[in-house]
Fold each of these.
Amino acid sequence: MSKFFALIPAAGSGSRMGNELPKQYLSLNNRPMIYHAIHTLCQNQFIAGVFIVLAPSDTEWFKYDWSEFSEKLVVLSCGGLTRADSVLNGLTAAKQKNLVDTNDWILVHDAARPCLTSILLDKLINELAIDKVGGLLAVPVADTLKRSNTENRVAHTESRENLWQAQTPQMFRHDLLTQALRSTTNINVTDDASAVEALGFYPKLVLGDAYNFKVTYPQDLALAELIIQKRNNP
Ligand code: C5P
């Protein structure tokens, strides 16, 4: 039987937040942001283990107490120059340590999506567990999309038909994802699915929700905090 593992690439600097501290450690509800995704993943009944991929130079991680997750959490200090490098290095390290089988499912999740729920996680796993390729959470694009010219004027309006915003987790088998990321090391892939697509596969889109947004700019942090506070005190 294939198992399900989560992998969080957390070796980025988060420079768009304009902060010295990498974004995964910014305080969210009195915890480092990454805590919230780890909590949801470790609590999930299907998830056998959670791999955290850190930058080799990261000292911030060790300032916090992670012992409540010790049954499932594995730290791999092998992050790379890009997100894709960090995921690939994490997959390789987990295999070398015999923690995963090539047939196991890996759910790659961004540390910067703290509002993931167990309900969405269950939905993703249930919809993809017998899929031949795998897939990802995503939401249909809601806004009208404008293509700009070099003067920031509207060159034309894009059709939003069949357009989705990719989220995470993105769920693929260890062997397929490893092969996909290895073969795209020279291309700038911004998510795991695009590496799999480059091999000619068609990952499945599983309907997520807008709460599972990525904290990218400072105002996103305040919104995530409100959502988590509301969940903790309904
Ligand atoms: O910067 P961005 O929001 O695209 O990062 C997405 C995720 O990839 C974050 O969790 C970040 O820590 C991670 N990342 C990484 N290694 C890098 C760059 C980003 O693990 N070299």
Amino acid sequence: MYIDVLLELKNKQMDQTYTYHVPKSLEKEIEVGKRVKVPFNKRELEGFILNCKKTYEGDFEILDIKSVVDEEIVLNEELLQIGEFIKNTYLCSLSSAYATMLPKALKASLKTNINKKYQTNLVLNLSYKEALSLCTSDKQKEIVDLIEEATRLEKREAQAISSSSVNTLLKKKIILEEQEEVYRYQSVSVLEDEKKVLNEEQQLAKNRILKSLDKNEQFLLYGVTGSGKTEVYMQVIESVLKKKKTAIVLVPEISLTPQFVTNFKARFQDRVALLHSGLSDGERYDEWRKITKGEVDIVIGARSAIFAPLKNLGIIIIDEEHSETYKQENSPRYNAIDVAEYRAKLNHIPIVLGSATPTLERMAKSTKNLYTRLELKTRVNKGMLPIVTMVDMGLEAKKGNFILSERLKTEIESAVSRHEQVILLLNRRGYSTTITCSHCGFTYKCPNCDITLTYHKTKNNLRCHYCGYTILKKDKCPKCQVPLDFYGYGTEKLEDDIKKEFPDLKVLRMDADTTRKKNSYENIIDKFKKQEYDILLGTQMISKGHDFPKVSLVGIINADASLNIPDFRSGERTFSLLCQAAGRAGRKDTIGSVIMQTFNPENFILKCVEEQSYEKFYNYEMKIRKKLKYPPFYYLVSIKVASRDYDLCSKEAVKVRDYLKNHLQEETIILGPTTASVFKMNNVYRFGLIIKYRFDAKLMDTLKELDKMFVFNPKVNLEIDMHPTKI
Ligand code: ADP
Ligand code: ZN
């Protein structure tokens, strides 16, 4: 027998299978999708069996495999297909696709050494009566009793006993040691929770999805914050499980959504497996095996959980579909939502994408009926959406209030006096390479692309990293003549300022620095929920789906910061972030208040937030996207040419452009090359090109060819990013 093996070689040049011979003694262990050890260039490597064949025709000398690694198949048929899909869609190597899909313990790599964990159990080797009759001491009888009871109750803890009497019993073969496979990850158990009676909108959404359980239909569940999307997901899944099928639920990041997970655990108990970044490699391996063995029906996890090897998949649900965490930012640059759609198609099942602020791409598709749109317009319990008030920081600055406006200060005081809580969002996602006037909020924008210009220190100029438009940096703000500044005010400083302003209040900070330790995120959420603190301040982390019933006020310190990020999606991102943050205010029985501080009170996006009108935002943003030829009207591909040699890099980038111009269709737009947004990193220079296309039959072939041309170039690296979230 011969097999084709995909080896653990990262190198794109080697992305092909190699044929090996299987010695007779190993033949019965061979199955496609298992790993084998093979000799390769005087080394030993691991690889996946992708094909078996009886004969081999060729001139190469064929070597024998060394051994078969797995007892069970690692890559089942579906995963094999998904790997091919990823390779073809994102132009990566097949081995890197599989490496991304699998937990570390199952990757083809000799370096991993993560094993199954076993526990030793004691069992009786004879009948209870016989065993007792052979005991020679009370201690021994006690042990036999204990084992008998533990076995009957399936209580394993009782068996962790060892003593000389145990040894005697073992020697006399009255009892035996048995190895049992155990799982390392023990998630906390949660009290069971009754399902809720759905309101009318929820019921309609649920019924509509249930009607299509055997179809590959795509749903967009567009529901305002607090409209009870999670309850809809759970009840739909309940019906899926009743049909003996399974479900994958994707969330942006497990640690940021403890409540979501708790809800699922409470409803479905230990039929749920969690795949998240906090798991050790061993724990992840165990969760994966539980899934393979069919011990769970629901998998909840972040991006990579889309590869969970659930059999009999019945539905895929993606919460917060607008989240950019679904796209992987390094190779393979896959988008879990694309993979989910592919998987749903393979299985002929529905997929549900939920959000309070859907991406323009998906909302646009729903207006063309490519997605079925389901709406939840009201909050559960008829709760009201909060009232958003915009405060002009330009005016406040004149009064000497640079950080907290009068209005926000007063509202904090009155909320706290009513024993309510406050959330303050410091949206800090500005780049230090964008320049903003701290006095009036002015920023430079590209007249062609409508994105913020990036500052280049070496030449003291400002550049558009899409099209290359360049101007010289001025020292003073052209609008108000105050010296121009880099953006830079952090949460730590805000915490100090708040403490000075309100010495009696208890302030809790949440950002990347205070949540580094394991569980620190949950601890902060927990403490705040228990009302041990008055104010929670932090970065976008705090805007995620938490339910704090006592929060009545949300303050947005600088609504502008994310508007100024040099990216065509910055408006969409800002709208989404601010609406999510606003949604934290007044979730139970109080009407919430949101104070939004800005230097740009005329900004249309912010006005949409003020009115909390997704529709208005959508119509406005769609017009801009259309005019400037951005998604959803055009698809994008981002190409980066990188090298340590500046001249070579710039020359190759021009060659890439020429190649694209010569091979792509005429209507396709090619921008650049221009210096990339992160131009020089670790002494590697990067030039960027952007392809905008609507339909180009030659695109994929051209990109594949281009990719091949650089595979063998040791000095210049080419990165292709299909449908990037950021460029
Ligand atoms: P969303 O995800 O849409 O923002 P959630 O799913 O967090 O909203 O729901 C908000 C709150 O409403 C949760 O505490 C949830 O348990 C509760 N809830 C959802 N549906 C119902 C219902 N039909 N009846 C009562 N409470 C509900
Ligand atoms: Zn431009």
Amino acid sequence: MRGAAVPPARSRPGSDGTVTVAASNPRSPGGGGGDDRSNTAIITRTKPRTKRPSLYRVLLLNDDYTPMEFVVHVVERFFNKSHEDAYQIMMHVHHNGVGECGVFTYEVAETKVTQVMDFARKHQHPLQCVMEKK
Ligand code: TYC
């Protein structure tokens, strides 16, 4: 059977940004039953369809044991914050239980979390770092 489940759309967008169109074939004027082997064309989209990536917050969690100076150092080192900003973030976490160190794409956020967790573990502090989708 020919084209059973496909609607006879004249223009159909593809997932790859191409559009398949039915072009008129002078040898088979409407009505069906004619030769349709050459009446399609691929039109490639010239303007790229860009999608903005999902963003993720990287958060530090408070605990009772990690020294304040260590947290400040972590925020400076892995989130490229000034000493003053890092101190403010650390104090925010200390008082509120959780605080944002930065917002990144998935892979970058994942890398930050791993770097912080590895660094905390190496220094035997229980500091926790997590990511959450915005
Ligand atoms: N609450 C810790 C203390 O009093 C300091 C601290 C701040 C720990 C932020 C973790 O993410 C944190 N030593």
